Amino acid sequence: MKIRNLMVAATLLVTAGAMAQNQDCAFFFPNQEGEQITRNCYTADGKLTNILVYRVDQAYEYPSGMEVVANYTFADAAGKTLNSGQMVARCSDGNFSMSMGDVATFPTALNMMNADVYMMGDLMNYPDAFSNPMNPGDDDEFDDGTLRLYQKGNKNNRAEISVFDREFVTTETVNTPAGAFYCTKVKYEMNIWTPKETIKGYGYEWYAPNIGIVRSEQYNNKKELQSYSVLERIKK
Length: 236
Fold this sequence. Notes:
The chain is built from 1 helix and 15 strands. By secondary structure, the protein is mainly β. This is Exported protein.
């Protein structure tokens, strides 16, 4: 499995947001059952490569916060489903976090999606920069995360995707086909490891309350754009 380019990271784990009513926590993922978001993934020159759809299946409220379970489908540009599964988004004691299934849009994962793949990843947090408008991002601490992929029955077909050194950049408005959203922008470093090679790069992601990630961009170490993803539509 030879990987030459970094592709869309959806960045990291799947995100979106809604303000939970029973807690002081910004929920960066849709929190109503049946809500659906679609994000399109492109090469650096704008060619559509993949379509990622998340749909909220179940939403639970607890005294300490809220948890959402969402189903996702990952399709090619023609709409053929390549893989599907579930992810979790959670607000607990004022902190939002989400499973890392979204980084399955990295190129290493793409090459494995037609196989019987098992994914195991960390929960990563998404701090609320809007809670302190005078100093957005002040004192925010961002988790590192690792997603491991294994093809069942073939131990040589495996990958490890690490996201680290995440840091607040700014807050700004991002325009997408689904509308304009005021977002937190975060930068991160990433390594993609396989038995054959290790690829290093970095990326940016923009996430908004009630939506989650509305845009992501991935670069190689030469500062060349490799791929990006954009929020395409929202279905209530």
